[in-house]
Specification:
Elements lengths: L14 H7 L2 H10 L5 H9 L4 H17 L13 H6 L3 H8 L7 E4 L6 H6 L4 E6 L2 H13 L5 E5 L11 E4 L21 H10 L3 E5 L13 E7 L2 E8 L8 E6 L3 E4 L15 E5 L1 H5 L3 H8 L2 E2 L7 E3 L8 E11 L2 H11 L1 E8 L6 H8 L6 E10 L2 E9 L3
Helix pairs in contact: 1-4, 2-4
The structure holds S-adenosylmethionine (SAM).
């Protein structure tokens, strides 16, 4: 291990810096670096007791630990580099995925990074984590130790060069270029998606994390695809092969844990005019193209075959969609909409839109100032007959 300090301007979290920060002296440095203070003065003080390069590394890690709290409850005790943290799967999503692997199995995590997925897989399973970057393996080791994950082995290697032996495989390929740009095609992932599909032929219980925006024609016919949203944002999709596949398409909404699967033989959902209850499906449901199974579950109809909004007569509580009670549906005409809002004493405080260009904030700006009144949500969309607006309130009751 090289113990040279970081080159000025480069990433201060070198392997040597990590080794220092993981030591007793490093723990004292990190505790001091966390104190709220002017960053320049703090650095000056820290440098009286620790080498300057490690002080810079401590400041960088403290900042990453702060950002990491969004993904990991134990972020304050973990080790990250910036890209490693950004690419890491947050613990709620990782736990959901890990639960799809058999308890007690031996799982190969073939692009383990700083260990986001590894830490979840290692609960009740033995895991071999592999990453091509030595520094990430150092971080995964430190993180596994910090969280008391005992059944973890870590290997620095190009996963494509290994002879694979295990009960199951998880692969989370790097999906961004060195400059941070996201790769769209699975063939540009590192390692490429076609390699991951070949691994699944060798070890059937394989799962692969892919972009939620993956093109339909890149989805392997033999895999289940699960789109997962976390706090209303669909950030990832997973391919599940062999015994891990339990549907063709699935949408899962976290933290609620609600899940919906495709129903290939079900009758199409009717299309009908807008009704008194409006459902705006979660982004995972929309991405998974599971609007119709959701409509059947809610006893709802579609407003248009191309539109994700659903309507029904009676509101049904669900975590798979936002539910609105509609006070009025009107053809969209700015002046008339304004008149109606004023006449009824309705005050738009939020907006939603689909299939129209105008952003909700822009629509409210164009409506101009309105007298204070009952807060409403404007849902702006387009049907075959033209644009319409639903004036709504939140609620499933
Ligand atoms: C998206 S990150 C993994 C994130 C990880 N699942 C987590 O939750 O922390 C992808 C990782 O793949 C590694 N990688 C890329 N190509 C690789 C290869 N051929 N063999 C092994 N690791 C590779 C990168 O170094 C990077 O750490």
């Amino acid at each position: 291990m090289s113990h040279g300090p970081a080159v000025d301007g480069g990433d201060p979290l070198t392997r040597a810096a990590l080794a220092y920060l993981a030591s007793g002296a490093g723990a004292r440095l990190l505790a001091a670096a966390e104190l709220p203070a002017d960053p320049w003065r703090l650095q000056e003080q820290l440098r009286q007791h620790h080498p300057a390069a490690w002080c810079r590394a401590a400041a960088a890690l403290v900042e990453l630990r702060r950002r990491g709290r969004d993904k990991f409850a134990a972020a304050a005790a973990m080790f990250f580099d910036r890209a490693g943290l950004e690419m890491a799967t947050g613990e709620a999503v990782a736990a959901h995925r890990a639960a799809r692997f058999d308890a007690g199995s031996r799982v190969l995590d073939l692009c383990c990074g700083i260990g986001g997925d590894l830490l979840a897989l290692a609960v009740g399973r033995t895991v071999v984590g592999v990453d091509a970057e030595r520094r990430r393996i150092d971080m995964a080791r430190l993180n596994a130790d910090a969280l008391g994950r005992n059944g973890v082995r870590l290997v620095v290697a190009d996963a494509q060069e290994l002879r694979l032996r295990g009960d199951a495989v998880f692969i989370d390929p790097a999906r961004r270029t060195r400059s941070g740009r996201r790769q769209r095609s699975g063939e540009d992932y590192q390692p490429p998606l076609s390699w991951a599909v070949r691994v699944a032929r060798q070890i059937p219980a394989t799962a692969v994390k892919v972009s939620p925006a993956i093109a339909e024609d890149e989805l392997p016919a033999e895999a289940e695809v699960e789109w997962v949203s976390w706090r209303g944002q669909c950030r990832e999709a997973g391919l599940y092969f062999g015994p891990l596949a339990t549907a063709r398409r699935r949408a899962t909404v976290l933290p609620a844990g609600a899940t919906l699967v495709d129903e290939p033989t079900a009758a199409p959902v009717p299309v009908a005019p807008p009704g008194p209850v409006l459902y705006d499906p979660d982004p995972a449901v929309v991405r998974a193209h599971l609007i119709e199974p959701l409509a059947r579950q809610l006893g709802a109809w579609r407003l248009d075959p191309q539109l994700a909004y659903l309507c029904s007569d009676r509101a049904q509580p669900t975590t798979l969609a936002s539910v609105y009670r509609v006070l009025a549906w009107v053809p969209f005409q700015l002046k008339r909409l304004r008149q109606l809002l004023v006449a009824e004493g309705w005050q738009p405080v939020e907006g939603r839109k689909r299939a129209v260009a105008t952003e909700p904030d822009e629509l409210r700006r164009r409506l101009g100032p309105l007298p204070a009144g009952r807060p409403v949500i404007l849902v702006h969309t387009r049907l075959a007959q033209g644009p319409i607006v639903g004036i709504c309130e939140n609620g499933s009751g």
